[in-house]
Design a protein that fits this description.
alpha+beta; 440 residues; seven-stranded mixed beta sheet
């Protein structure tokens, strides 16, 4: 098979969701020749392509607990009028602390910050393979290049350090990494995903809303709708959310292509059932039901967790344990969505806990020059249900790239990189590294 030889880089970031974005910006700003490859035509992942325009959670306990490049990003969006940043002193449920962004502007701002930093972009060119060789230095695997699927054919990009920010850990798996997927499950299923859709702004009379609620209950009871289509929401709650994050698509594995294909079919069928119910309930057609915008795919909550040198646990997460090699903070409740319509298992951090992420949970076990950041970082299933959210992923991406920068500057392996130099570089880029960095 012919593979075109492409460029060589210091750092190659696989995946340009929120973790890949901050990793590429940090790497390039630190002076590394940086490439970022992305399977979609725009950056942002679930934030943009997935339609989930909420970035949680920079604030907790009336304090800012995550900053850095992710915070710079939302601040720039807010200054331009395209993000709404909550009041950190507000009291209320955890979800009020999410930063809401305008999706087109959010993607454009990522483009701008990446190009300003000097990162080279490979959009619409997913990783198709990873090339490796044995390394005697750490008696493991050395990644030498990644093969991307471009319009010109398969193209090889060579690199010194690689960061997998694909969410599902695809690049790490191609390189031979070990992983967990599921496990510790109460019911044998992974967390359901959600296909995002948005309702037009409607001012419906009470009789129409009441009729819609009746139809939704009736269709759920007679099997014309699945209980997961709206998860018991009323028209009032759907309208207030404009449809965002309403349904669940259960029983699939986002890291399995055949299963993922089935989930996409099921997700669109769910939206179709809802549209028919709204039409039958007398919701105005102009000329169609008021759902015309949906995300192009089901947003995944859970898939692979790549095994790294370290491992985050629920117990340490909820206690706010500070790992000796902490490189960033995280914040969100344990938030495990159960299969079907069986609710969410949550544990809230209410007593001042600020979890940390250890560098060792980002360095891939058995591979000398690969890190992971974001949802596929190393930890148990319940801890993962919390650290998978976007602000935490942004912090992890930046931390992983800082490790790469220090290792390459000093001519050492990732495992030999000086922790204090990594922390210094992160703080120079306004990151919060440990709980001690959190101030009022």
């Amino acid at each position: 098979m012919h593979i075109i030889d492409g460029k060589s880089y210091d750092l190659i970031v696989c995946g340009c969701g929120v973790a890949g974005f901050t990793a590429a910006v940090q790497g390039a700003r630190a002076g590394l020749k940086t490439a970022v490859i992305e399977r979609y035509g725009m950056p942002g992942g679930i934030l943009t392509v997935g339609g989930n325009n909420d970035i949680a959670q920079f604030f907790a306990h009336h304090k800012q607990v995550i900053r850095g490049i992710g915070w710079e990003y939302v601040t720039r969006l807010a200054e331009a009028g395209y993000a709404v940043i909550p009041d950190k002193m507000a009291d209320g449920p955890h979800w009020i602390y999410g930063v809401h962004v305008n999706i087109p502007a959010a993607a454009h701002m990522m483009d701008m910050m990446l190009t300003e930093a000097g990162a080279e972009l490979y959009y619409g060119q997913p990783a198709a393979a990873v090339e490796t060789e044995h390394t005697e230095e750490e008696n493991g695997i050395l990644v030498t290049g990644v093969v991307i699927a471009s319009k010109e054919g398969l193209r090889r990009l060579r690199g010194k350090v690689f960061i997998d920010c694909t969410g599902d850990g695809d690049a790490a798996i191609y390189a031979g990494a070990q992983y967990e997927c599921g496990g510790e499950s109460e019911d044998g299923f992974l967390q359901p995903g959600t296909i995002r859709f948005y309702l037009d702004k409607l001012d419906l009379p009470e009789d129409v809303k009441n009729n819609a609620d009746r139809i939704l209950r009736e269709y759920r009871n007679n099997g014309r709708m699945d209980p997961t289509d709206v998860r018991g929401r009323t028209m009032d709650t759907m309208l207030s959310a404009r449809g965002n994050n309403i349904g669940h698509v259960s029983g699939f594995n986002g890291a399995d292509s055949d299963s993922r294909t089935a989930s996409e079919v099921a997700g669109r069928a769910s939206i179709y059932r809802l549209m028919n119910a709204l039409k039958d309930a007398g919701v105005p057609m102009d000329p169609f039901p008021p759902i015309e915008v949906i995300a192009p795919e089901v947003a995944v909550r859970e898939s692979r967790r790549i095994l790294c040198d370290g491992y985050m646990t629920e117990e340490k997460y909820v206690s706010g344990y500070e790992y000796p090699d902490a490189v960033c903070t995280s914040f969100y409740p344990i938030d495990l969505h159960r299969h079907g319509d069986n609710g969410i298992r949550q544990t809230f951090l209410t007593d001042g806990q600020i979890p940390t992420v250890p560098l060792s949970a980002l360095i891939v076990k058995g591979i000398s020059n690969m890190l992971v950041a974001g949802r596929c970082a190393s930890g148990d299933r319940l801890a993962n249900s919390a650290y998978r959210v976007k602000a935490s992923c942004m912090a992890m991406g930046q931390a992983a790239a800082a490790c790469a920068a220090v290792a390459l500057r000093d001519g050492v392996t990732l495992r030999q990189a000086d922790l204090e130099k990594i922390r210094t570089l992160l703080r120079q880029n306004d990151a919060i590294v440990t709980a001690a960095d959190v101030t009022d």
